[in-house]
Amino acid sequence: MQITGIELRRIAMPLVAPFRTSFGTETTRDVLLVRVVTPDAEGWGECVAMSEPLYSSEYVDGAADVMRRFLIPALPRTADPQAVGPALAPIRGHRMAKAALEAAVLDASLRITGESFGHYLGATRDRVPCGVSVGITGSVAELLDTVAAYVEEGYVRVKLKIGPGWDVTPVRAVRERFGEDLLLQVDANAAYTLADARHLARLDAFDLLLIEQPLADDDLVQHARLARTLRTPICLDESIESAAHAAAAITLGACSVVNVKPGRVGGYLEARRIHDLCRAHGVAVWCGGMLETGIGRAANVALAALPGFTLPGDTSASRRYFGTDVTPPFELSGGHLDVPAGAGLGVEPIPDVLNEVTTATEWIPF
Ligand code: OSB
Ligand code: MG
């Protein structure tokens, strides 16, 4: 199956509410979609880079540039998903861009064989429990209202974004209001340093499932030190860009949980390797999110159905993000999302909706 060409499609997706983290506020999701065209099938991939390099060094314009100048010319001529990673390996970094291309090739090739993403990856469930990531709000009262609405919708786990000046007080308020049975965790997006260890230990009082990425992305050693001073388990997000990083983090004792995001680690195949490694070591994993449209969400939900994903993920319903998703919406049922069962991603963009939100397209012949 030869690749005929690749379309880069930029879309602008207004968020239903601004999403504030310790690194910035997002009001519109600026997304780069990739469409791989072959004579027999087309495949879609979503690049999770954000418009500015604040979560990690990647950003949407940079991803589009590296794709057209370096990654697409290096792709194998035939659409073999297993060959994509090795072909792109000589180009350093740019994992989110690589992941989007690999996902699109995977989707195209699975649509031809009729196999679903979930089946291909090794999913063992047909639905997955869902958590929700709650941004920093203007007040504790607003946060409590926001969390109440999500709990009412059925989310089985709540993650609060935290940062210096927005940590112990909001966490205490949520724990007091919703009680000890609420599965609750926090995400600092690398906003603290080891000098904050005593302050972070105050969160131990609230029986959190985990604290995600408290310290800098490139500091596994300090996370290992922090882990010895906290009772709350440490989960790494930004720090884990590969299975090799996950192995190092486990060896050092830098984390006891890993947030798996396929974009951050260079693709769904590397994400599965991290799942396998963590599972073998008894380290829990869960599927993170990057405010994906239905394209990326379909693949994430399939991944989250693998047996080592023992904690609820940030795989929320489409309506938590967008008024109108580019695919038929993912809807929560009893706190779960169904894993798509159709060939490939099992979902496709709705042409009219896609055209409505498209800001630019570029065709790169092969
Ligand atoms: O750190 O997990 C994160 C969104 C964008 C960038 C980084 C993160 C997040 C989220 C939201 O927490 C996850 C989601 O609902 O998609
Ligand atoms: Mg995170």
TrEMBL record:
Record flagged with keyword Lyase: yes
PANTHER family tied to this protein: O-SUCCINYLBENZOATE SYNTHASE (PTHR48073:SF5), O-SUCCINYLBENZOATE SYNTHASE-RELATED (PTHR48073)
Organism whose genome encodes this protein: Microbispora triticiradicis
Identification of the protein by name: o-succinylbenzoate synthase
Entry EC no(s): 4.2.1.113
SMART domains, alphabetized: MR_MLE
SUPFAM superfamilies from the UniProt entry: Enolase C-terminal domain-like (SSF51604), Enolase N-terminal domain-like (SSF54826)
One term of GO molecular function: O-succinylbenzoate synthase activity
Family annotation (InterPro entries): Enolase-like_C_sf, Enolase-like_N, Enolase_C-like, Mandelate_racemase_C, Mandelate_racemase_N_dom, OSBS/NAAAR
Keywords: Lyase, Magnesium, Metal-binding
Required co-factors: a divalent metal cation
Domain Mandelate racemase/muconate lactonizing enzyme C-terminal stretches: 140-233
Family matches, as CDD domains: NAAAR
Pfam families: MR_MLE_C, MR_MLE_N
Keyword hit for Lyase: yes
Origin superkingdom: Bacteria
Taxonomy of the source species: Bacteria, Bacillati, Actinomycetota, Actinomycetes, Streptosporangiales
